[in-house]
Amino acid sequence: MRKISLYIHIPFCKKKCIYCDFVSFDDSDEDIEPYFSALFEEIRAYKTILNAEYIIDTIFIGGGTPNYVEVRYIEELMGVIFSTFDVDKDAEISMEANPCGHSSREDFERYRKCGVNRLSIGLQSASDDMLRQIGRQHTKAEFDEAFKNARSAGFDNINVDIIFGFYNQDVLEFENTVQYVIGTGCEHISCYSLKLEEETPLYDLYMDEGIDIESEDFEDRMMYHTSCGMLEANGYVQYELSNFAKKGYACRHNLNYWDIKEYIGLGLAAHSYKDKARFFNTSYMDEYLQGIETNGSAIEDIEQLDKEKQEEEFIIMALRKTEGVRFDEYKKRFGEKFLDKYKDETNYLIEAGLAALSKNSMYLTDEGKDFANIAMMEFISN
Ligand code: SF4
Fold this sequence. Notes:
This protein is an alpha/beta fold. The protein has two domains: 2-258, Aldolase class I (TIM Barrel); 323-377, Orthogonal Bundle (Arc Repressor Mutant, subunit A), CATH 1.10.10. It is built from 17 helices and 15 strands. A hairpin with a 2-residue loop joins strand 10 (271-274) and strand 11. Bound molecules: iron/sulfur cluster. Residues 13, 16-17, 20, 22, 24, 63-65, 98, 122 line the site of iron/sulfur cluster (SF4).
């Protein structure tokens, strides 16, 4: 049996955060019921496709805010998944949750009972002022309570999301956030640099205020390296550009993405990778509901990857990881020696101080992490 991961998208939120460009809605509660019906149908449509040769290794229920919808939807979702697919008995089953959603002890007990064994809770900042400014629908105290409820419901594998790089955020405020998260004792921390996306209220704010995005970079990098140092000093090992975990708690699901393993994404706008093809569902709710009803599928596009593209993706994703591009893995997949094929690119990055070599890998240095996109461009052919 081959292993495969499953991603399920739940596109509903209480209110949009001002920086968010994920496919999620804060004004579509009437779609929740039909959405889940369609989602269950889409899951069942994959039964014959997957069951012949695959076992589900990891599941990630993301969003949106999966705990915004009533708990019974997630219970039913897990029931449909378990009754449709072969799920490994040791599968990692993660769910994103926000403190503004269902987050009482009883709610978390129900999530655990139906199979969820890892939580990813969105905090973003430990400053109530900052939370308010970026449109989050919770306070630090509410996060604190949700976290404690999750713990007392038995969750022993919890990620906390934090974000940095807002124009009026100071380094001290961010350090306080990192310190606070470390203090929770969570097993995993995702620490994201703000990516300013067009067509978000935050983007409009930057434009209206004439904020120079480039000049924000210095502080952004300072916060990044500060957080890396604080997290490492407290037992959180960096295993990817934005991800840190205590020993044994790296997220298996996300590692599967970075290792270019196969996964199926179900639900609105969900992406998949299988049999060396990438495909994704429509981002429009009406099209999704209609597509599932008429064809059992809402796939918008498919791209079959040629060898060149597969290599590009493999290298770029590997560079995100602290261990970098593993030479043995590259040889196994592509039948060549990495350093024979990419000698010039590798030498260039090493001379620029952006990459270094170990016995079995090429990885980004601390400086290289600041210029990861530039380093990755070296391996993109067009
Ligand atoms: S909670 Fe997450 S998905 Fe929902 S609006 Fe905020 S950032 Fe976007």
